[in-house]
Amino acid sequence: xxxxxxxxESKRLLEMMINSIYTQREIFLRELxxxxxxxxxxxxxxxxxxxxxxxxxxxxxxxxxxxxESRTLTISDTGIGMTKEDLENNLGVIxxxxxxxxxxxxEAKDGHNIIGxxxxxxxxxxxxxxxxxxxxxxxxxxxxxxxQSTGADGYTIEAGExxxxxxxxxxTIKPNTEDDNYDEFLEEYRLRSVIKKYSDFIRxxxxxxxxxxxxxxxxxxxxxxxxxxxxxxSMVPIWRRNKNELTAEDYENFYFEKRYGFDKPLKHIxxxxxxxxxxxxxxxxxxxxxxxxxxxxxxxxxxxYSNGVLIxxxxxxxxPDYFSFVKGMVDSEDLSLNISRELLQHDRQLKLIAKxxxxxxxxxxxxxxxxxxxxxxxxxxxxxxxxxxxVYNEYGMNKDDLQDLLMFYxxxxxxxxxxxxxxxRMPEDQKYIYYATGPSIERIxxxxxxxxxxxxxxxxxxxTDDIDEFAIKIIAKYxxxxxxxxxxxxxxxxxxxxxxxxxxxxNDSKELxxxxxxxxxxxxKQVKASKRLKSHPVCLSAEGEVTIEMEKVLQAMPxxxxxxxxxxxxxxxxxxxxxxxxxxxxxxxxxxxxxxxLLYNQALLIEGLPIQDPVEFTNDMCKxxx
Length: 626
Description:
Mean pLDDT: 88
Largest sheet: 8 strands, mixed
Strand content: 15-25%
Number of helices: 19
Strand order of the largest sheet: 5-4-3-6-2-1-7-8
Radius of gyration: 36 Å
Number of strands: 22
Low-confidence stretches: 95-100, 108-119
Distance between the termini: 110 Å
Helix content: 25-40%
Structural class: alpha+beta
């Protein structure tokens, strides 16, 4: 018996493939089971082409058998088998796939598709085995052949014996090392879990001899162990079943079985696409935020299957970041995969599926918002922040997809409203969509800056998330209406409230405010008479693109960006404090300095900004009290 060398590549290639291409050893079982399924498929195609053959599905299965004593793991199938030439051509040439060649010759019929197109999967067996033996007898022949190899050094083929048509792949499992536990691939529970994870939806039964325990006949307290053959895969995936046959409970059970979350999903989306790209998908919109959702540890992505075989646990390319909360799976026969089956090529099919999924999710959320408002509000409480981040991220590329899904608390409605609902209620004379920022609804309601807008009867949106104002700055306009902060320098309604008294006070106060500004050098850009304040003595407003709230957010970031808003200290000339300021300006500049410092620090406190010197502030308060 002569040892033959692998024709295609050197020992280095095989070692690189085994150690680098596959990220997890357990993948070998998926690959070998997929190959076994292909072998049965080939019998199915042969029966389609030959009227003299009957394909009786009950006769076809895959068997996985572990023997701890001999340290062997056997994967058997009742498929078409291989001739000596098949063994030579398909197993003697690394990265040559018999299944791929077969598929090219026989286009898929009746919904059956060849899985093992990639030509390397068989050799993943060497990740866990010192020696691999293949015993195969092809359909229509009484002869069997044995292919054997211990790795990249080569292989042998010789005549053998096999009672039935099909293939047995026998792996001699490696001994354990300090770092690696190979015994796990001889354990029943481990093998079952790997099969359920990757091959649960293979269309043929995968059988194992399962051990159990039962009471001895005639005894209540004594038990005996027994072993029986069981099918360990479910075979028919839920996504290939008719939607009309499925209930809400079926989808919920699938959600729990796949461990997508511990909550009940708010909504499911079942997609069966048969167009430019063929795929099935089941997507879930969760109700609750995963504990790690807003952390770096959270991984987005959908499970990706190719013809029912799990290829990736989390395919991130199928979901945009702003829909990263969506759970579920996609199964497609059209994806182009590379030799490892784990790495997707970024091809047209993948992009088409991702685009369709994005549109399906958006459509479902819009439907939820319109028809099941309470459910949408529950969803938005958990994931609204992510939608707003999606608007802001990538320079606003996705704002058109997301802006209609946003909601903010309304000063009038006292609940969350959409931008469209706000616009629909705007009076004809209202120029802007007004908003106010703060850490909570209660704090915003007390802001002095809201007085003028509220008195005009205009609705104000409350922004309580640190991302809110950044997202709105990106949107800039909604249905031709610009957004305006109640703290901005120009509200667009000040001219409506001007009167002779205000104009006179504004002129009289110029010297006073100029002096106060000189006392607050580098702290405020200007001190001026306020046209927005009614009952409050003082507030801060901002000029330019950076608002006070944005300054707080940016400075709180780990990078510690030293970004400052151009602040304006506004004084209510109709408040009694103004008379005190005028008097001090004329008679006691020292006291005016004290008043100016106190008013500025009070304005900072109202905005939630830190006071530079709290001790000085409390001492100033005491001076006023004495």
